[in-house]
Amino acid sequence: MQRQVDGDSLTILAGSDLPDDEFKGILERIAEQVPDLEIDSHRGEQPLYPVVFSIE
C-alpha cells in the first residue's frame, strides 16, 4: 500500500550505531511505501540517534 506524505523530499541521516544493511532496508521500505518521494540519504554518524529524518 502506498502512503501519502506532506512533502516531496526526505533527508535521512544514519547514526553511528546503525549498520549499513539496516539503513539500506529502511531506505528500501520508504521507497516502496512512498515511491514519489525524493530520498537524500547520508551517513550522519550522529552518536545519539540511530536515524534522523527531515521532510520538506
Your description of this structure?
Helices cover 25% and strands 30% of the residues. It is α+β, with helices and mostly antiparallel strands. The model has no long low-confidence stretch (mean pLDDT 94). It has one domain (1-42). The chain is built from 1 helix and 3 strands.
Rg, Å, rounded: 11 Å
Mean pLDDT: 94
Structural class designation:
alpha+beta
Beta-strand percent range? 25-35%
Query: Largest sheet, if any?
Result: 3 strands, mixed
What is the succession of H and E elements? EHEE
How helical, in percent, are the residues? 25-40%
Report the end-to-end length measured between terminal Cα atoms.
Answer: 22 Å
Could you give the order of strands across the largest sheet?
A: 2-1-3
> Total strand count, please?
3
Shape category: globular
Task: Give the domain tally.
Answer: 1
Number of H/I helices: 1
Question: Stretches where pLDDT falls below 50 for ≥5 residues?
Answer: none
